[in-house]
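Bump. Still looking for LacI family DNA-binding transcriptional regulator structure tokens.
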Amino acid sequence: MSTLSDVAAVAGVSKATASRALNGRGLVAPETAGRVLAAAARLGFVPNRAARELARGRSGIIAIVVPTLDNTFFTPIIAGAQARAEEAGFQLTVAVHGPDAPGAFARLASQVDGFLVVAPRGSDTLVVGTSAAKPAVLVDREIDGMTSVVADTAAAFGTLTTWLATKGHERIVYVGGPEGSWQDRQRTAAVQDAARRAGAELTVLGPCPATFAAGVEVTAAVVETGATAVVPYATSIGIGLLLALGTRGVEVPRDLVVSTEPRVIEALGLEHTPAIDVDGEELGRTAMDLLARQLDGQDEPGRQVRLAVPVRG
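Sorry for the wait, here they are.
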């Protein structure tokens, strides 16, 4: 059976260079990498990824931790992270935990190389403490000193509120997200500021879990406000609202505008409906890329990335 040393000898390079060329990490000249790959193919050499990672003191596994699977916003984030993890040679595993479960994080830490912690709730101290055992990247939340990537939805929600006011909507409702959500605090503040500047009357409802059922349940309160536009925290809340409004005979968007995302507008054939277009897959890919760079020593912890979020009117 051929070994890495055999491949290096045939390719005329050092064992370290052959290893870098085969695992795709580190700088190797294209011509050199080509010779190494050709030698490996000729010898029938297949890198033992598990052995390679163990030799580096790693498992090759990354945990992406989400607070719930009820919120469909997390689905493309997981997909994007998984695609980038595979490119970087890692296996991604999904875990559902909140930062108030430090025991779960501690058990995971003994099995994985790092964490992608998505939209964690709780205090900064709690999140930092539970994520400290291994390199970690926050997704959709920012804490000083921790690497993070967020979709700048707060700015988008503010822009959307301003747009609604310029279209003549004098009463607007914001249906808030889960209690303790960092993003909900950011979005609430942005919506309130935009409404104040535009001279619109704003009603904030919630907190609400980011679920279809929550949208259905909050519908009566929305109707009672007499608002002509609604900005829900999450798409799932908005879909619940749309269904419940229909059963009440409220025509959308003629009687009440409910902002959502482009795929919902297309699926339901809604016209003249504003949308916030978050690229969840890009969010996940960026988070995984930041973590891979940390693990390879290319980045120090603390880098914060914000991705722009377009608003479509």
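The longest helix spans residues 182-198.

Edit: fixed formatting.
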